Amino acid sequence: MELVEIEYIGEEKKIEYEYQIQKVIKQCFMTENLMDKNLYINIILTTPEEIRKYNKQYRNIDKETDVLSFPIFEKEEIEKIQKNGNEVPEVLGDLIISMKQVARQAEEYGHSFERELAYMVVHGFYHLMGYDHIEEEDKKEMRLKEENILTILKINRE
């Protein structure tokens, strides 16, 4: 079963993006014990203009952003999902990533495009898992989980 479905809107398809995303999502699923669930993630790689439209439509914020997450389940519901052999896979949620913003932030933070893309995927994944960074304590927990995945994959800050 595929863990991730990748779509492109206004961006050129690149195998290296897909390899990186699949590697990161697989590690996220393994770390969070989701491999035995019948779940996958839909990821859209797009432009700043397109992500702005989604941001305005779904969050009423008329500006570009780096990643948007649209979870399907509440945190508690994910633990209860059981794999059934006849079941059609369910989407854990959708991630929309602005590839130009990934490039800008990689340059701004002084690390590679690959590292920033991996971070966006991990960050979005944990939003789909029900984590957020509004409260400081929640932010610390989410950051620890994100950094754990990147460390396991040896995707470090340069």
Automatic annotation (TrEMBL):
Q: Which GO terms describe its biological process?
A: rRNA processing
User: Listed GO cellular component terms?
Assistant: cytoplasm
Return one GO MF term: RNA endonuclease activity
Q: Which family does it belong to?
A: Belongs to the endoribonuclease YbeY family.
Q: Where in the cell is it found?
A: Cytoplasm
Q: What is its EC number?
A: 3.1.-.-
Note whether Nucleotide-binding occurs among the keywords: no
> Where on this chain does Zn(2+) bind?
123, 127, 133
Keyword match Cytoplasm = yes
The cofactors named for this UniProt entry are: Zn(2+)
Where does it mainly reside? Answer: cytoplasm
This protein's name: Endoribonuclease YbeY
Alphabetically sorted, this entry's keywords are:
Cytoplasm, Endonuclease, Hydrolase, Metal-binding, Nuclease, Ribosome biogenesis, rRNA processing, Zinc
Protein task: Single strand-specific metallo-endoribonuclease involved in late-stage 70S ribosome quality control and in maturation of the 3' terminus of the 16S rRNA.
Cofactor binding, per record: Binds 1 zinc ion.
Q: Record's HAMAP family? A: Endoribonucl_YbeY
